[in-house]
Amino acid sequence: MAESRIHVMMLPWSAFGHLIPFFKLSIALAKAGVRVSCISTPRNIQRLPKLPSNLVPLVHFVQLPLPSFDQELLPDGAEATLDVPFEKVEYLKVAYDKLQHGVKQLVANELPDWIICDFNQHWMGEISQEFQVKLIRYSVLSAVGNTFMVPPSTRKGPLLPESLTVPPEWVTFPTSVAFKRNEAIAFCAAADQVNASGITDFERLEKQAPKSVVFVVFGSECELSKDQVFELAFGLEESELPFLWALRKPRWASNDEDSLPVGFSERIPERGFVCMEWVPQLEILAHPSIGVSFTHSGWSSVVETLQFGHNLVVLPFNIDQPLIARFLVEKGLAIEVNRDENGSFTRNDIATSLRQAMVSEEAAKLRIKTGEVAAIAGNLKLHQDHYIGAFVQFLRDGIWKQT
């Protein structure tokens, strides 16, 4: 039996919004009897959650150290996007590309049945062809985000912001999901740029009424300015709702106290709590006191929220986040925070949206919709037995069967 076991090699990009979905897929495949080799850098692997003990024999983490790099461009220990400011991510990509030789050697030695890679291993196709190993690209982006992201070779001309402010011509069903002009301008600039290429918070939650707390989380790679963080803080204060805010110390702050407006913590001692350390997001979302998730609309955060049927308030910033936000609003699952034409928002916009999602008549309508989605998104048996089962069958015979 062991001889016929499928071997899959996983190669995620060095961002935890990618590493975690690949990690979860590794676990799901291992539960179905697939042998998995997951490749990343030493520090990234150390920062992943622990594997369930029964799956340790099936999931092997392969450490490939990043090559040395100019310290001014990429400091020692910087192995993931959360370790560097946004403007230095391009140098992380350059360093990551230098893993190509090590990956090629691993493929040559292991000859896996399949390789599952991320969006930016542009050299993986050549390796898979050389060793005749089948290749799958796993996109951690939402389907709505991928809809707007076509290869440059298929474009009729340069990528223009105007083309992103309406649904693409190949979308044949009615929808209004698209970028706003300021978002489209930022997206085009990034897309075509030539670059270098278990906490005590639960005790607080226990004291709150069911479905009454706002969980605020903007992801480890969403870098907010001082004005934006302060406006969020004032908006939470103005909302008068209980909240738990997972806030990583911003790069512009010299210490934790610097990260928030003066006197903020003293003004919300019983109602709100700011955690400046890592938080177990899934465990918090599972707590009965949580009623609303306030997020940047990153796809992983959205899916985790909807597993528990919580209403969403979304404040998107980049990449496909604006599209996900519009999609959620269109489906009646979220409230999007209002912004000016230049993309700015106010504390009043924050407070209004939070109260709308928690205590208004619209909140009740949202809960009906999010509850319906939770019946599917939260059905882990359905995901493992049906979807993962079908995928593993495809890995075995190479034929996708509609079920």
UniProtKB/TrEMBL annotation:
Keyword Transmembrane helix: no
Gene Ontology MF, one: UDP-glucosyltransferase activity
Annotated InterPro entries: UDP-glycosyltransf_plant, UDP_glucos_trans
Annotated family: Belongs to the UDP-glycosyltransferase family.
PANTHER family referenced in this protein's UniProt entry, alphabetically: GLYCOSYLTRANSFERASE, UDP-GLYCOSYLTRANSFERASE 91C1-LIKE
Protein's name according to its UniProt entry: UDP-rhamnose:rhamnosyltransferase 1
Keyword Repeat: no
Keyword line: Glycosyltransferase, Transferase
